[in-house]
Every structure is written in C-alpha cells, then in structure tokens.
Amino acid sequence: MNTEMIEPFDLKIGYLTPKNPIALAPMAGITNSNFAKQFTDHAGLVVLGGYNLDDSTNDAAKRIAQRGRSEFVTDSPMEFLTSELETITDKADDCAVLVNVRAADIDAYVEAARIAKKYGAGIEINAHCRQPEIMELGAGQSLLEHPDTLCEIIEAVKGTGVVVSVKIRANVVDDLMTAYMIEKAGAHIIHIDAVGRHGADVNVIRKIRNITSLFIIGNNSIVDYSAAKSMFSRGADMVSAARAVLKEPNTLRFLVDQITSYQMTTGWYNSPKHICGGGDLRALAFCCLPVKPCAVHNALSQIGMSAEEFTKLKLQLVEGTPLEYGDSTCFGSMAWCCKITKPCFLRDGVLEVVGLSDIDFMRLKKQMSEEILAHRRR
Ligand SMILES: Cc1cc2nc3c(=O)[nH]c(=O)nc-3n(C[C@H](O)[C@H](O)[C@H](O)COP(=O)(O)O)c2cc1C
Ligand code: SF4
Ligand code: SF4
Fold first, then answer.
1. Residues with CB under 6 A from ligand 1
2. Which CATH code of 3.30.1360.200, 3.20.20.70, 3.30.360.10, 3.30.200.20 fits the domain covering 22-266?
3. DSSP string spanning 296-362?
4. What is the pLDDT of residues 40-91, one digit of tens each?
C-alpha cells in the first residue's frame, strides 16, 4: 500500500468541525472543563458533563452523591454551565465540545442549548443515565421509554440553532425505532453506548448505520484500536471512550495516531467490513457480481433492489472511471473488487496499470457506496 499524503479528516456536524474522529465520553462528577482540557490538543471532541440543569436534577444528584457516585452538583446550574464552557472554549485547540445534560423540563434544556451555542459548543441530551433518582424525574434513560418527550426536547433545542446530540443506552428499548425518531426530530448526532450482555454489542452500530444518516458516535469498551476499528467498520463516524481514559490517559492519543495513520494509507478511515464479514450496507461497494447465494442478497433486499438492478447500477456507476477496468479480475471490472486491505495481486496489478493509488481506489469506492445507497427504496 502506498502512503500518499491526503487531506486529514473532513468532519462536519453543523458548525462543529472535529479535527479527528476520537472523543472523550462524559462521566458525571469527572469530565468537567479542567479534566477535559488535558485532551483538547489531540482529541477531536470532548463531551463534558453530565450537568444537572435545574433544582430537581441537582437534588437528585446530591442524593446519588450521598451514596458514593460522583456527580456535578450546583445551586446555580446555568452560571455553572456558562463558566464551564468559558473555561473549556478558552483553549479548545480546535477540539469540538458537547455538553451532556439532564433536566426535568424542556425550558432548562432550551436555556442550556442557547448557552452552549453562544460558546460554539453543541448540546447532548442525556437519555442514558439509569440512576433511579434521575429516571424518576423523567430524565436520563427514562426518555427512551418516552420517545414523544425526547422528540419534543430535541425539536425545542434544535430551534435555538444548536448542534444536537442524543446519548442513548442500547438494548433497552427498540434501538432502530429510537434512532429513527431521533433523526426525524432533527438531531445531528446519536451517541450510542452499545452496551451488550458481554461487553460492546457492535452490531447495534451496524443496524443503526443501516437505517439513519445521523452522525454516529460509537461508545462502550473502546480501550484500544481494535475495539475502535470494530465500531468504525460497522458505520461509526466517531468513537468515544470513558473508563479507558481513567486507566490510561493516553488512550485517546493512541487512538488518534492509529486512525490517522489508517486514514492516510487508505483514504477511508471508517470503511466498512465486507457484507459477509459483518459490515454495514455501505459495503455493497465491495460486493462481487451477485451470481452466487451469499449475504449480498439479503443486503439488497434491505435496500429494495434486485440483483439485476444492482448489477446494472454498479456497472453504470463505474462507466468512464478507472474502476471500469479490470479484465483480469474475478468479475471483469473493479466495480466488483474487494476492499484495499484485502490482499489481491489481481486487483493491485490493474491498479498499477491504470495508475490508480490505493487511496483513490477507496475514494471511488466510497463515492460508489454513497451512490448505491442513494438509490435505496426505504
Ligand atoms: C463514572 C461514570 C459516570 C458517567 N456519567 C455519564 C453521564 O453523566 N452522562 C452520560 O451520558 N454517560 C455517562 N457515563 C457513561 C459513559 O459516558 C459511557 O457511555 C460508558 O461508561 C461506556 O463507555 P466506556 O466503556 O468507554 O466507559 C458515565 C460512566 C461512568 C463510568
Ligand atoms: S457478494 Fe461477495 S463480498 Fe458481498 S457478501 Fe457475497 S461473498 Fe461477500
Ligand atoms: S480480483 Fe481480487 S479484489 Fe477483485 S474481486 Fe477478485 S479477489 Fe476481490
């Protein structure tokens, strides 16, 4: 593989432009502005909080703290939020900022959203916290069970022009319906704690990727590059880590270095695994000519396309591009060729002859995947 220099990550979420896809996840009582500052020179995003936005959530947090869990408790929530944002944005080093928040009523979310926007930060609605004191107030994870309220909050905060994220805990309710409603209500980001029975359930990321265009932050057990790759290759646009940074504060730095190197050598940092390897629907760009019984047929039925239509579309998409070539490859054209990280001397020989770099091959495949999915019938 060559190591041609390419543009760094080109991430844009409303007015947020994270410099890379690695984030600090929120931990109540820990991830305040001073804690987060140690990551802003290298991480793409820091999520501060969870902050309690009103008297009820602060009282609840006080009770939670009394039984030993760390919490941010304050008598003046909006002043505290303002001073936290002032501190973090004072020297944010191009690092994007979200504030993770809990409240008992919509007005507090809206007020916090206005403050966050003023400082160029986004807001993250906490639909994740399962502490009973918070859930009793209708906040945290209880919002997953009350999707109409969650959507009302999203719509209200969106009205301020702020970038909106929703942090969810997976496998509590119907994740696909939740993601669909969050997108429909206008959020920009879904931050998924993909908690499963035995560590991270990465298939949740794939399933949500397959039905939304939301910016996905994958979270849970991101302790090393292999865990991060496993979420990126199932459709996460970014990954975040919480507990790992407490154990090893350099975790985010390692992840940034490794994903940057992968981006510079392949040009598609979150390229999917092949469909038969558990990848998401973007991987149709790497699929073979659909002539044998395999997982491609199920993937095609998910996008409402027949094998004949798929064949015609892919051939049409490569017409006039270097992917059109490849007589010596398995199916006569690189339209059907595998991901660049799969070693193949047949494809690499053609790439050499047509003068296409690995990065440009992957860029064309990325473009192809977007065009295939643009033809999906929902
Ligand atoms: C001490 C602690 C406090 C947390 N507080 C919050 C919070 O306030 N808001 C939130 O959305 N998630 C909170 N989380 C969840 C984390 O953001 C993350 O989703 C979870 O720990 C799984 O990711 P990890 O495996 O990287 O730790 C907290 C986690 C821990 C360990
Ligand atoms: S078409 Fe090829 S790459 Fe796609 S699922 Fe089938 S065997 Fe895997
Ligand atoms: S030629 Fe190589 S890259 Fe292309 S489809 Fe065959 S095995 Fe995959």
1. 25-28, 30, 49-50, 70, 100, 126, 128-129, 167, 193, 219-222, 241-244
2. 3.20.20.70
3. HHHHHHHTT--HHHHHHHHHHHHTTSGGG--TTSTTSSGGGPPPTTS--HHHHHHHHHHT--HHHHH
4. 999 999 999 999 999 999 999 999 999 999 999 999 999 999 999 999 988 7
